[in-house]
Fold this protein.
Amino acid sequence: MRKLGAIGKHAFLLIVSAVSLFPFLWMIIGMTNTSSDIVKGKFSFGSEFFNNVNRLFEQANVGTAFLNSLLIAVIGTLLTLLLCSVAGYGFEIYRTKGKDRLFGVLMLSMMMPFAAIMIPLFRLFSQWGLLNSAVAVILPTMTTAFMIFFFMQNTKSFPRELLQAGRVDGLNEWKLFTHIYMPTMKPTYAAAAIITFMSNWNNFLWPLIALRTAEKKTLPLVVSSLASSYNPDYGIIMVAIVITTLPTILIFFLLQKQFVQGMLGSVK
Amino acid sequence: MRGSLNKSSLIGWQFVLLPSALILLFSFFPMVQSFILSFESGKGNVSEYVGLGNYSRLLSDPMFRQALFNTILYLIVQVPIMLFMGLIIAHLLNSPKLKLRGFYRTAIFLPCVTSLVSYSVLFKSIFAVDGIFNKLLMNLHIINEPIAWLMDPVWARVVIILAITWRWTGYNMIFYLSAMQNIDPSVYEAASIDGASKFRQFFSITIPMVKPIILFTAIISTNGTLQLFDEVVNITNGGPGNATMTISQYIYNLSFVYTPNFGYAATVSYAIVIIVAILAFLQMKIGGEKK
C-alpha cells in the first residue's frame, strides 16, 4: 500500500513536470521546423533552423528589439533599486507616524489596476512629447510600492548597530546609506534586481501603448506582432520566443537562490 | 535629544520624498484624472462633459457585460484550481526524503520565467486545429475529431484557463512550499501517532498552518486575473467574437483599437477599480476574522 502511494505520487509529479516542461521543448523543436509543420503538430527536429533565423532577422528588427529590451530592463532596474531602497530604508529606519501614514497611502497604489491609469498616463506622456521613447516606458514603472515594501521588510533585519558605529565614525546620514547599508544589503539588492529585471523584460501592456514605431519596440512587442499577423510564420516566431526567453532562463539557473528569495522576500 | 530627533525625522523625509512623489505622480494623479475623464465623452482628445452618461451607457453595454462575465469566470474557475494544485504539489514536495525532489520543483517552477507574451503564443500554436494537442488526444483516443480550440467560445476560454494555470501554478507552489517548510515536523509525528491519515493531516494541519499564505496568494491572483490582458490578446485576441475578451482588453480596445473614446474607457476602468475595492474589502474581512 505504501509503495503504491509512492508510485502514485511520482506518477503525478512526473506528469505535472512533463506538462510544465513541454512548451519549452516545443519551442526548441519548433525553431527547427517550418510554420506549416508546427501547426500540424510535428514533434521532431527538422532542418529549418538557419532558414528560420535568417528570415526572422530579415522580417523583424530583432537585434534592435533586443537592445531596446535590454536598455529598458537594465536602466529601469537600476533606477528601481536606487529609488525603492532609499524609500524603504527611509520608511523603516526613520520611522514616524507621518511616514507610516504616507506609506499606507502609497500601498493603495498596489491595488490600482493598470488599465485604470494607462489612459491618463498615455495622455501625460503625449503632452510631454515623450511617447515612443524608452523614457516613457521606464518613468511610470520604476517606483513601485511593492518594491519599497520589499526593501522595508528586508531592512527590518538590518543590524542597526552598524549605523550607530558609522555615526561615531562621523559619517552623515546619506553616507550611512551608501557606505554601510548598501554594501550590507547586497543579497537583498540581488534578489530585488532579479525580480525587477524579469518584470521589466517581460512587460507588455504599457510598452505596447507607449512605443509606437518598429525601431523602438521591445522583444515581447515583436513576438506579439509577428504572432498576430493574418498568417503567422511560427518557424520564425519560435526563434523570436527563444531569444526572448533565453536571458530569463539563464538568470534563473545562474541565480536560482536569489531568485526564489526575491519572490518570497515580501511575505516574511 | 528632542532637537536631534526632529533633525533625524527631517532627514528621513529626504529619503522618502522623491520616490513617494513619483508614485503619487504616476499612480494617484492618473487615478484622479481617470475619474474626471469618466464623466466626459468624445473622440480622441476632443471630449465634453456628459455627467453620468458613460455610467448609464456602461449598464446597458453588451460588450462590457461580456467582458465582465469572462473576467469573473476566469477568476472563479481558474484561481481556485490553480491554488489547490499549488497546495497539493507543495505538499507532495514537502518531504525531504522524496527522490527527484529538486528536479520536480525546478520543472514545475520553470513556467514562471517565461514572458506572458511568449508562453501565450506557444499555447496558441499548441492548440492549433491540426496542432500537437489535438494529435495527442486523438492518439490517446480521447477524441475522434480535432477540436477547434480557439474557434469555439467555450473551448477558447478553457485554453485561456489552462494557459494561466500552466504559467502560475509553480509560482504559488513555491510560496506554499516555503511556508510548509516552516511547520515543525513534530506536529506531523504527533498526528501520525494519534492515527491521523496523510489525507487528514493535509486538511487539518497543513492547510490551517499555511492559511495566511493562501490568503496572500489569493489576493495576488485575484488582482492579476482582474487585470488579465497579455494572454487573451496573444492567444485569442478576445475571440471568437468577443467570447474571451477581458475588461482590460476592452479598455485597451476602446482607447486604442476602436475609434478612441478615452472618457468611456475610463468609465469601464472604474468598474475594475470598484470590483478590486470590494474584493479587497471582503478578503481583508475574511482574513481579519480568522486571525
